[in-house]
Design brief:
The chain is mainly alpha-helical. The protein has 9 helices and 2 strands. It has helices at 11-15, 19-46, 53-86, 90-94, 100-113, 118-127, 133-139, 162-172, 176-213, and strands spanning 2-5, 219-222.
Length: 245
């Protein structure tokens, strides 16, 4: 059983916050939710066991996809901070009030994005776009030894154009080490961002509804949430209505 503490407040109370603080809190919460959903997806995929070549190809495709999305969203999180935290001048108000751990995690995020980095390139070229320039460049120097594959099935949702992922992944990552570094960067920055964002959300709530923050938080229970290592997310799925062959 998992127990969650619940803090409740009304929309009217939120609207009474200074607008910049309300907007920042909403933006931070929204990004935390999306980043966590993608992070969970990535963790499940990393633990999904595969045996055959098509299963491995499907798992790799999903892992590459969620890594691109997570990289793009983390870059967008930084861009949001540029506008709604630093640009709004809230950083000058809130940073002195944050604890040392929150500030340290913010500085780590800032240090990563202050220079050239893999996540910004992934976001700009691949996470939310289908640009062809880098693919065209990749095709100008072919690897004759690489075998490309397309897996077909009578159910469209079980068809996999592995050839496309092979070319795109080579375009993004020079080798497996570069891919692993991008995954590790996502993991580190996800944790940095959440440590800062969640503490910042609590700080804003303390500033405006402190009686609720310091009061008793009701408990709700989730009866039987699964363990992360019990979950699998295979690419290929059967349906009851269609012959599985």
């Amino acid at each position: 059983m998992m127990q969650l503490n619940v803090l409740s407040f009304t929309l009217s109370e939120l609207c009474a916050f200074p607008k910049n603080e309300a907007i920042l809190m909403i933006q931070l919460g929204h990004l935390c939710n999306e980043l966590t959903a993608l992070y969970h997806w990535q963790m499940v995929l990393a633990r999904t066991k595969t045996q055959t070549e098509p299963e491995i190809a499907g798992n790799v495709m999903q892992m590459l996809f969620v890594t691109r999305l997570l990289a793009g969203k983390l870059n967008e999180a930084w861009e949001m901070l540029q506008t709604d935290f630093f640009g709004s001048k809230l950083s000058k108000l809130l940073v002195p009030l944050l604890d040392a751990e929150a500030v340290e995690n913010l500085e780590r995020v800032k240090a990563y994005f202050s220079g050239k980095n893999a996540l910004t390139r992934i976001r700009n070229q691949f996470a939310f776009h289908y640009g062809s320039d880098e693919i065209r460049e990749q095709l100008s120097s072919p690897n004759d030894d690489l075998v490309l594959r397309l897996y077909a099935h009578k159910q469209r949702a079980n068809c996999l154009s592995q050839f496309a992922e092979q070319v795109v992944s080579m375009t993004i990552f020079t080798d497996h080490t570069a891919f692993e570094k991008a995954v590790n960067d996502c993991d580190t920055l996800y944790n940095n961002f959440l440590e800062f964002a969640q503490r910042c959300i609590v700080l804003i709530l303390q500033r405006h509804v402190n009686d609720k923050v310091t009061g008793s938080w009701p408990i709700v229970e989730i009866e039987d949430p699964p363990f992360i290592d019990e979950l699998r997310l295979p690419f290929y799925l059967r349906t009851r209505q269609v012959d599985s062959s």
